[in-house]
Amino acid sequence: FDRRVVRGMETTLGLVGKDFAIVAADRSAARSIVVFKQDEDKVLELDSHKLLGSAGTAADSKAFTEYIQKNVALYEINTGLKLSTAAASNFIRGELATALRRGPYQTNLMLGGFDSAENRASLYYIDYLASSNKVNYGCHGYASNFVLSILDREWKEGLDVEQGVEIIRKCIAELETRFLVSLPAFTIKLVDKDGIRLLNQHRPEVAAA
Amino acid sequence: MSILEHNGAAIIAMAGKDCVAIAADTRMGLRQQTVATDFEKVFKMTDSVFVGLAGLATDVQTLRNTLKFRLALYALREEREIKPDAFAALVSHMLYEKRFGPYFVEPIVAGLKPDGPFLCGMDLLGAPVFTEDFVVAGTCTENLHGMAESMWRPDMSPDELFETVSQCLLSSVDRDAMSGWGAVVHILTPTGVTSKKLKGRMD
Fold this sequence. Notes:
Chain A is an alpha+beta fold. Chain A has helices at about 60-80, 85-100, 145-155, 160-180, 205-209; strands spanning about 10-15, 20-25, 30, 35, 45, 50-55, 105-115, 120-125, 130-135, 135-140, 185-190, 195-200.
């Protein structure tokens, strides 16, 4: 457990709508006072209908999320079946829990997925201590202090894509105004019955510069 | 802040006349921030054994899965369901196995034996205490102890028991920042289990 690493500066958030889930994450890769890059994609596509947004120590986030991605693929190869989002959440939680007392992964996750069997999207908030909660919306990191009140106010049952994206836009706008740490760019991905699509790499021109 | 208070919990179990109740709040937070208001902390192990797990949420979930697994094996080997006192002994043993790297949970076992209710509370190392009236666990045990001590009386009917347990829990969590945000009560009687959600202050 590297206590020198500043935790909480990275952000991942998500929400569910009528038949879709959105998972977003900031695009900064930084340590201490230095920003290495502004175009890091932290929303990993586990399979065609699952998104895993991560926030935390870069090494742990990358290693763990890629490990999960490969194991999800292996499950499909072995059994010919796709994991449900709930099953994926349990698998992720189990792996984090096993590692917790051995060599913990310092990574907070938002798992969003669409299950064709139930024709419903779901979102799971998984923290680095391996507790998992099915939620309608959530946010990790210091940004949650700013963003959760907006989500509490604006989220309602049965949002459509436009309304969902508008809420995300409001969250990001709030962070731009009030959050000390500058997060100029966000990756915003959506998953629904047709799969995953990249909604907006928020302000990509900043990253390209 | 102790690691046992990181996520917040309030659990109480009480004995009545041939019935037992176990109730818990449903808040799950990260220190001062509330994350979920539907977090399950009381789990049905068998028709006559319930366990409430207070403490670190990750260990609550891990322990719940491990206990489910161990009970499934027990049922296969013994070809019967586990009794409340045997289950309490199992939990105590599992916790003490991790004596020098424990699970950060303080379980409560509530069950119904043929001759009456069974109550057992444990600390995180598995030290059990068996009582005839009530057991409490969580972040507001002082509140819960005070409420239960005043309100408990012997030989309550299931309805009286439900009312008593609910009032004890709701009043206790209202003075604790880390617990509350919803509550669930389970009443075990020889004829079956009734589960009810309580309407409390969502703050």
